[in-house]
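Example for tutorial group B:
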């Protein structure tokens, strides 16, 4: 098995064995990665790549919106923020604007970092049996 095939198998296995919380974390990381790549494409004046990477980030935001449990009050606020971020990505794509991408990237990083903390707290509770 080649190194690339082994890596692809590892990536596939990490997704199929991940918990829902870990999958959400992967989505945030993917969105950040695609925004970063879109910024690089703007620097290189590669319009096609910029468009592709922004659309991939938007697809991730759409997935995050679709997985929200709207029975939970905080979900409405998250949905509105995701929708805003999606709109801002559209604006960044039309205007070729790195500053807008920076804004969306920073929001995504905040979501990701908060989500990491939630996962850590849940793991601590799971292993110690403590419920808050």
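The residue assignment follows.
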């Amino acid at each position: 098995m080649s190194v690339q095939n082994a890596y692809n198998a590892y990536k596939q296995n990490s997704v199929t064995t991940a918990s829902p919380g870990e999958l959400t974390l992967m989505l945030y990381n993917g969105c950040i990665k695609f925004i970063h790549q879109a910024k690089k494409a703007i620097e290189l004046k590669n319009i096609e790549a910029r468009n592709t990477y922004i659309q991939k980030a938007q697809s991730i935001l759409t997935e995050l919106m679709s997985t929200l449990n709207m029975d939970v009050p905080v979900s409405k606020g998250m949905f509105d923020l995701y929708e805003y971020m999606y709109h801002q990505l559209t604006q960044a794509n039309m205007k070729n604007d790195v500053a807008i991408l920076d804004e969306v990237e920073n929001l995504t990083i905040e979501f990701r970092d908060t989500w990491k903390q939630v996962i850590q707290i849940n793991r601590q509770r799971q292993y110690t049996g403590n419920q808050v």
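The chain has a mean pLDDT of 89. Compare this with the pattern of hydrophobic and polar residues in the output above.
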